[in-house]
Design a protein that fits this description.
The chain is built from eleven helices and 25 strands. By secondary structure, the chain is α+β, with helices and mostly antiparallel strands. The strands form five sheets. Strands 4, 6, 10, 11, 12, 21 and 22 form a seven-stranded antiparallel sheet that branches. A six-stranded antiparallel sheet has the order 2-3-23-24-1-25, with helices on one face. Strands 13, 14, 15, 18, 19 and 20 form a six-stranded antiparallel sheet that branches. 26% of the residues are buried.
Length: 586
């Protein structure tokens, strides 16, 4: 230990002044101001750091959660509006924040763009560094290999430095190492080698592929269209805007270039569980839709069966089987005997396991007053103290339970109305002869005439299917990028990056061989592989020194199958024929 004055002389004058200024309470120095350019550079470096990119990726995943919790307008606009009307002011507040249009909201788009910029700023510099590393030579051999993992020192009697180095380089090349042979002082030779660049390649591939996914999703949103349709058995669909129930298109898609194809829903089949298990009874087992497609690109019609997760691909579009239900055939006549509604009426399942479905018929042309028929279609109908409901989703006992109203339906106001909803609060129910509200219960083939002269008949039941039609020209590109990201992640996790050095130093009795390694990532096998390499080189050197031993070799002489004994040195015992192993210094 030196004195205080000695320690002060060892400290730089500037540091001593700062320390004295700190003791006296005076400011010894002030940090320079960043300025506008420095502040922007600092913010850019923070944005393009890997930590920020990971944080934004996590934030994007969290921001996407509301898209799966709340109905989205681009998927089902009617269901979204119904949800908002049922949940009042809270749902309106969420709608203001964009929770029902999550993936097109301002806050989700902001996170998306920040993540994209962060990845670009992070990947491009790393890509340049990686390319320079691949093209450069392996790093020079350290002067002291004892400090590294698996250090092994072997004395090879009668060996040749250049031959040992050449064999080491050849062996490492066979193990997919990039090698370089260097000349050192005193006639020594060293082999420096490195492998595992595929790890960083996989890391960069993951990030570039993630960028590709972001580009594919964004471009797909700009150039895609998506629409929903409902088709009754026996009816068809032509791919035009007028035929869609709802339609959304990307900002850069031209709707006048819709693919020209048509199809007809020939048959829809559904199977439900009929086992005695109360938890499984009535659960759907299979949905199938047989369609006949008219595709001009294929010069003719062909048949196709759509199932859940087995869509129809036609002219670059994908048509998914989205839902299904019942369409009872109903005929409604006004008091004057005019037919004001006729044909299959699409019903909306209420959500119970029995497929109890809501039915709404609007007859604005009825005379002398407009009519509305509201009620339920019951596939397996039961009307009891619980009210009308269905006990099984299959057509076992189909029934209609209806009420009829008269009044102004509000369709002449010019305001669009939901075709599957009607406000009966302003309408007058049709009464029976006793003055009570008429309740109509019908089975297929039945009809009933009300007290005011109007009539309703139940003619039969058909099924309908709901389809989701989507065109995304970047779907395949996005899939390839996603798979590439998985591949890059696997490479970055399981490919070890390591450096291995071999040094051959001439000695009075032959060659001293030193081998060591350095792991650039988690590598549990490095020490074992380094020592195995040293043993291989020692064995090959011994074999080269004595290639053809005589048959009468003395038992005391070393065989050609084992390395020759090394001369006694401070590091090696002369009685040992195997390499000595020393771990890295602490």
């Amino acid at each position: 230990m030196g004195t205080a004055s000695t320690r002060d002389r060892r400290v730089a004058p500037e540091a001593r002044d700062l320390r004295q200024a700190g003791k006296s309470g005076k400011a010894g120095a002030s940090l320079p101001k960043l300025g506008v350019r420095g502040t922007l550079l600092f913010l850019w470096r923070q944005l393009t750091s890997m930590q920020t990119a990971l944080f934004l990726l996590l934030l994007l995943a969290i921001a996407a959660v509301p898209g799966s919790l709340y109905p989205q307008r681009n998927v089902d606009a009617s269901k979204t509006e119904q949800y908002i009307s049922e949940h009042g002011s809270w749902a309106k507040f969420l709608d203001t924040l964009g929770f029902f249009d999550v993936f097109s909201s301002v806050w989700f788009s902001a996170i998306y763009l920040l993540l994209f910029v962060s990845l670009v700023g992070c990947v491009i510099p790393r890509l340049g560094v990686h390319l320079r590393q691949i093209r450069s030579r392996p790093p020079r051999t350290p002067s002291r290999l004892r400090r590294f993992a698996g250090f092994t020192r072997v004395e090879l009697p009668g060996g040749d430095v250049e031959a040992v180095a050449a064999r080491a380089a050849k062996t490492l090349k066979r193990s997919r190492y990039r090698t370089d042979v260097l000349e050192e002082k005193g006639g020594a030779r060293s082999v420096t080698s490195e492998r595992g660049y595929l790890r960083e390649t996989g890391n960069l591939l993951f990030h570039v592929a993630l960028l590709g996914v972001l580009v594919g999703v964004a471009a797909g949103g700009l150039f895609q269209y998506r629409g929903q349709i409902t088709v009754v058995e026996g009816e068809g669909f032509s791919n035009s805007l007028a035929e869609y129930d709802s339609f959304e298109q990307g900002a850069w898609y031209d709707s006048s270039k819709l693919p020209s194809f048509r199809f007809t829903l020939d048959d829809f089949r559904a199977e439900y569980d009929t086992s005695s298990n109360e938890h499984r009874f009535g659960q759907p087992k299979k949905f199938e839709a047989d369609v006949t497609v008219d595709d001009p690109d294929k010069s003719g019609e062909y048949s196709k069966t759509l199932r859940v997760n087995q869509p129809l691909h036609v002219q670059g579009t994908t048509m998914y089987l989205l839902g299904n239900g019942y369409a009872p055939e109903v005929t409604v006549k006004d008091p004057d005997g005019n037919v004001v509604a006729e044909g299959p009426i699409i019903t909306i399942p209420s959500g119970d396991t029995g497929y109890t479905s809501q039915l709404v018929i609007k007859a604005p042309d009825a005379q002398p007053k407009q009519m509305a028929v509201v009620g339920f279609f019951l596939p397996t109908g039961v009307i009891d103290e619980k009210g009308p409901h269905s006990e099984f989703p299959g057509l076992v006992n189909p029934q209609l339970a209806l009420t009829v109203y008269n009044g102004d339906l509000g369709l002449d106001d010019g305001v669009p109305k939901n075709a599957y909803q009607v406000d009966v609060s302003s309408l007058t129910p049709v009464a029976d002869s006793d003055g009570n509200q008429s309740l109509v219960s019908l089975t297929p083939g039945e009809s009933q005439t009300l007290a005011d002269g109007s009539s309703i008949s139940f003619d039969g039941v058909k099924r309908y299917a709901a389809f989701d039609i989507k065109r995304d020209p970047f779907q395949v590109f996005t899939l390839v990028m996603a798979l590439s990201a998985v591949l890059g992640l696997v490479l970055s996790l399981f490919v070890p990056r390591r450096r291995v050095w071999v040094r051959a130093v001439p000695s009075a009795h032959g060659v001293v061989l030193e081998v060591a390694g350095l792991a650039r990532s988690d590598d549990d096998r490095l020490v074992e592989d380094v020592r195995a390499l040293a043993e291989r080189l020692a064995d090959s050197a011994s074999t080269a020194a004595d290639p053809s031993p005589s048959d009468d070799t003395s038992a005391d002489s070393p065989s050609s199958d084992s390395p020759r004994p090394a001369p006694q040195t401070p590091e090696t015992d002369s009685s040992q024929s195997k390499p000595s192993h020393e771990g890295p210094l602490q």
